[in-house]
Amino acid sequence: MRVLLKRFAGRFALTMSLVVLEAVGWILFPLFIGRAIDSVLADSTRGLYEFGALGIATMLIAIVRRLVDSRAYARIYVGLGEEMVGADEESDTSIRTARLGMLREVVEFFENSLPALVNSLIGLGGTVLILWLLNVPVFLGCLLVAVATVTLYALTGRLTTRYNEGFNDQYERQVDAVHSGNPRRLGEHLRAMMRWNIRLSDLEAGTFGLNWVFMTGLLVFAVASAAEQTLEYGAVFAIVMYVFQFVESMLGIPLYYQQWLRLREISGRLAGVGVEAGAAA
Questions:
Q1: What pTM, to 2 d.p., does this model score?
Q2: Residue 44: half-sphere exposure toward Cβ, Cα within 13 Å
Q3: CATH number (domain holding residue 168)
Q4: What letter does residue 197 receive in the DSSP assignment?
């Protein structure tokens, strides 16, 4: 995937710039809402106009990004698909069809998942910074939980990759199984695919559950710490809400990591048939 990023650096830079601008707009929303409230309480409408302008600007950036993304990634997919099929003439139809579908997964990750991941990371950074300003013990608790989450998913990364490899090996046999016209062979193929899928799902459920235990402990600690150190109800509410945002990001980002592990395994297959080699040309 690194080679693809280098080849299409200009397109990725444009789309990522729009993603960052959109994310910054969303981060500024709470600040501008507060300014709008203060403005209304002071019998002024300036804050409302500022908030409205931010909303319109963020909306326009979001629309432009989606228009640019759909066209840019469509061209990338078509170009790479042609290169892959042309460079993989020795493989049978089943493998080439499966790998074309895998290529689509890679492109869809850049088009859909990567922008969401960037938004989550920027939001996570902003949330942690605000918590550091509001309540240092809660901030430290967030850091501790973040380290625990990273460690958990790092320890299970190899197993996730192995399960994805088994699933993709079986997926490459799908067209042959269908083309054979043998219901028994097709049934065995589908059951084998589902076994790998169940293993992946069970692993994801286990890591998600353990990660949620970390997050629940953090929420309990945050409520207790905020209530003990802060007298204003509004401040306590704000701290808890920011911790909820942190928890939401920390539960979602690992899912992108697991998706990246799958795409890394797919990229290895595609590199073997010249897609990334062609991208380097």
A1: 0.63
A2: 11
A3: 1.20.1560.10
A4: H
